């Protein structure tokens, strides 16, 4: 999970952009010359232009992935959290999305990985994307500790024929990784995308 910061109605996980917002706010508060403020605004505009450019140059997702992303965005997360069904108020910003999905697909297919491990599943965007470029006997094992997400994601990925390649391990990722290690399971490719404080442990246990 990535740390997320917000500026008025804008939201970003990019620490460079959130730092820029902080500096811009400070510059405005100090009443710095307009050239400085507009210079900072120009940098912010470049961030957005880069994102628009990258999205525009990325191929369309498969129908199944497109549906998964749409269903994720439209899910009543606030309501299910209020009803006590999820561990916390889930943000759709956790979804890896089409661009990151294609980077993963590229890496998995270039490395000819047949066994992939994902730490941090959310609604299965990364897992399904990787499964799509793997051979029929390929396997994606993915870890998720929120029982609501585990159930929901199973229904999302099973709408695709590639869903059968995906095994979901429910529970704290570190426990799942230790169990996999004890069973002597090995992987060709590992995508760590869960809680940041756990990354060093996930990395060390994985190797
Ligand atoms: C950034 S999202 C993963 C996004 C996903 N990889 C994708 O491609 O869309 C992080 C996920 O990790 C899960 N998570 C966070 N801490 C965890 C832990 N200690 N064990 C297992 N899952 C965890 C969260 O519930 C969340 O669904």
Automatic annotation (TrEMBL):
Keywords: Methyltransferase, S-adenosyl-L-methionine, Transferase. PROSITE patterns: SAM_OMT_I. One of its GO terms (biological process) is methylation. One of its GO terms (molecular function) is S-adenosylmethionine-dependent methyltransferase activity. Gene3D superfamilies: Vaccinia Virus protein VP39 (3.40.50.150). It holds the Pfam family Methyltransf_3. PANTHER family: CAFFEOYL-COA O-METHYLTRANSFERASE 3-RELATED, O-METHYLTRANSFERASE-RELATED. Belongs to the class I-like SAM-binding methyltransferase superfamily. Cation-dependent O-methyltransferase family. This is Uncharacterized protein.
